[in-house]
Design a protein that fits this description.
A 5-stranded parallel β-sheet has the order 2-3-1-4-5, with helices on both faces. Helix content is 55%, strand content 12%. Helix 1 crosses helix 9, helix 2 (30-37) crosses helix 5 and helix 3 (43-52) runs antiparallel to helix 5. It is globular and about 50 Å long. By secondary structure, it is α/β, with parallel strands linked by helices.
Length: 200
């Protein structure tokens, strides 16, 4: 079983990913994979700099994700240009990691924690889609506190994504993150049990 775990910014995907790891899943964080595919010296790094200029390179020589984010979230065409560069590289790296885990003998569920699984047309990689959903007010409060984002920045990021209704239309499982951590843990454990009992 390969589960695609997705949801909007600030919905709590990473927390759910952590809970699933505790339960025995192997979790692949596609954001971290993304970091690897445009690390300095990589083909992804070269193509991003060629496309967006040296302005998106931080003083330490890495891609400055905040600067790059400011460019792409304000411009749908430039966002599409970035996606065309990184999505094939990310998918290739994901398949390599899955292959390595299976070759090493891991037979349990693998979870792809992928914020833009649907937008990136990555559903063919997974057997089920799990969507984490949270109330808009909770998302805004979480982003303002955890990432020090302004209301305008939050609105821009949310507007650049699929809305929850569209995500949920594709979902096999919807995980409602509308309470505290203990409540979320119960929701995740219940969903996990269906996978385990299904012999995945």
């Amino acid at each position: 079983m390969i589960i695609g775990l997705t949801g909007g910014i600030g919905s709590g995907k990473s927390v759910v990913g952590g809970l699933l790891a505790e339960l025995g899943a192997h979790v692949i964080d596609t954001d971290k994979v993304g970091h690897r595919v445009y690390a300095p010296g990589s083909a992804g790094f070269t193509r991003i700099v060629e496309t967006f200029g040296r302005a998106v390179v931080a003083p330490d020589g890495t891609i400055d994700r905040k600067k790059l984010g400011a460019v792409i979230f304000a411009d749908a065409e430039r966002r599409a240009a970035l996606n065309a560069i990184v999505h094939p590289l990310i998918f290739g790296e994901i398949m390599r990691e899955i292959g390595e885990r299976r070759h090493a003998g891991f037979t349990g569920p693998i979870v792809l924690e992928a914020p833009i699984l649907l937008e990136a047309k990555g559903t063919g990689l997974v057997d089920q889609i799990w969507v984490v959903a949270a109330p808009p007010d909770a998302v805004r409060a979480r982003l303002a506190a955890a990432r020090a984002m302004t209301r305008a920045e939050i609105d821009e990021r949310v507007a650049a994504q699929l809305d929850d209704a569209e995500r949920q239309r594709h979902a096999d499982v919807i995980l409602e993150n509308d309470g505290d951590l203990a409540s979320l843990r119960k929701v995740v454990e219940a969903a996990w049990q269906t996978v385990v009992e299904g012999g995945a």
